[in-house]
């Protein structure tokens, strides 16, 4: 079974919306505007590209990333790997042609089936609504979180507010950087 990894920049109060400057959010760009840049705090991002064998996105994140990421020098490995987009509304005509193989998945059942295939880890970037649904369905195996020392209040959150049984996590890696960012890697305990 493949490991499904959720990776996110989150504020201390759990907001993941618009970390890089996306329009339409009051605190857009909070990762670059409110915290000093330290390259070592982002080491995990390069590691993720080397370890992941597929990229999973929700529709909104796909529509935000697909016009930009294919040409970014920072994401060369993502160009090569297969991409999966969970959407009930996208069509093949909506997919970009310069980002490699992309498959549309129509349900969480299809994500569960993808996890049963041969291959290495599948990584989920952004995709707030998808992350919450995957978590609620018990499909996430690991979290890679960079927690920023900011409180944002309103905004899309990484974790669901669904009334459900507690989910235990095991901390398998952590580090705190001089700028206050905390790296926390958690395995989901089943």
* Cross-sheet strand order for the largest sheet: 4-3-2-5-1-6-8-7
Mean pLDDT: 95
The total strand number stands at 8
Gyration radius (Cα, Å) is 16 Å
Q: Tell me the number of helical segments per DSSP (H or I, 4 or more residues long).
A: 6
InterPro entries: DHFR-like_dom_sf, RibDG_C, Riboflavin_Biosynth_HTPR
Domain Bacterial bifunctional deaminase-reductase C-terminal: 2-182
Protein name: Dihydrofolate reductase family protein
Pfam families: RibD_C
Task: Kindly list the characteristics that best describe this protein.
single chain, 190 residues, alpha/beta, 8-stranded mixed β-sheet, 22% helix, DHFR-like_dom_sf
Describe the structure.
It comes from Streptomyces hyderabadensis. Pfam families: RibD_C. Residues 2-182 form the Bacterial bifunctional deaminase-reductase C-terminal domain. By secondary structure, the protein is of the alpha/beta class. Helices cover 22% and strands 25% of the residues. It has helices spanning 30-33, 43-51, 59-65, 76-80, 108-115, 128-136; strands at residues 4-11, 54-58, 83-86, 102-105, 122-125, 142-148, 169-176, 182-188. It has an 8-stranded mixed beta sheet with strand order 4-3-2-5-1-6-8-7. Strand 7 and strand 8 (182-188) form a beta hairpin. The longest helix has 9 residues, at 43-51. The protein is globular, with a radius of gyration of 16 Å. The chain starts with a strand and ends with a strand.
